[in-house]
Amino acid sequence: MLFADHKERILQELDYVLSGVSEETVQSVVQAISGASRVFVGGVGRSGLVMRCFAMRLMHLDREVHVLGDTTTPAAADGDLVIIGSGSGRTPSLVARAEKARVLGCRIVLITGAQESPLRRLAHQVIEVPISDLISHQPLGNLFEQAMLLTCEIIIMKLMDGLGITQGEMFRRHANIE
């Protein structure tokens, strides 16, 4: 199959899946991020890498953000927001972290492809990336991870609009010791 054919299939899949993401839920999560004093993000594997990308952009928006499990991550507290990305919603380490976060009084947002899962039951808000009704031509969890990345980028763009932050302001917070 040609590159162009693969590209077209991937774009069609992403269009289908992202069309099923709830605008109201995304807007509610944007408001939660805007109102949170601190944001903690977590994920495992490739989903974890996507959540790290999201954390970087939140930092560029001047949000206090930390990645769960990093050595410099501070203690979470009541009122903090925890955002977890998990395709299955069943990763044991993420379930344990969500349980602990709830005990501490944190609000939990889950970005998932699972319609039912332990993490979904623990979350206060769920952005469902509806991959379950589509048989992807891509391997493994590619479709979920791509759709989650784009969902997170759309959240960033909505935050930029709502906070009145420009790309230039974000760039001033970009790493300068590279």
Descriptive account of the structure:
- This protein is an alpha/beta fold and 178 residues long.
- The protein has seven helices and five strands, in the order H-H-E-H-E-E-H-E-H-E-H-H.
- Helix 2 (23-35) crosses helix 6.
Question: Which properties best describe this structure?
Answer:
globular, alpha/beta, 178 residues, 7 helices, five-stranded parallel sheet
**Structural class category:** alpha/beta
Based on CA inertia axes, which overall geometry fits?
globular
Q: Name the helix and strand elements from N-terminus to C-terminus, one letter apiece.
A: HHEHEEHEHEHH
Spatial strand order of the main sheet: 2-1-3-4-5
Which range best describes the helical content: under 10%, 10-25%, 25-40%, 40-55%, 55-70% or over 70%?
40-55%
- How many helix segments? 7
- In percent terms, what proportion of residues is strand? 5-15%
Overall mean pLDDT stands at: 96
Intertermini distance: 39 Å
Tell me the layout of helices and strands.
Layout: H1 3-19, H2 23-35, E1 39-42, H3 45-60, E2 65-67, E3 81-86, H4 92-104, E4 107-112, H5 118-122, E5 125-128, H6 142-163, H7 167-172
Parallel strand pairs: 1-2, 1-3, 3-4, 4-5
Summarize the structure.
It contains 7 helices and 5 strands. With 178 residues, the protein is an alpha/beta fold. The radius of gyration is 16 Å and the shape is globular.
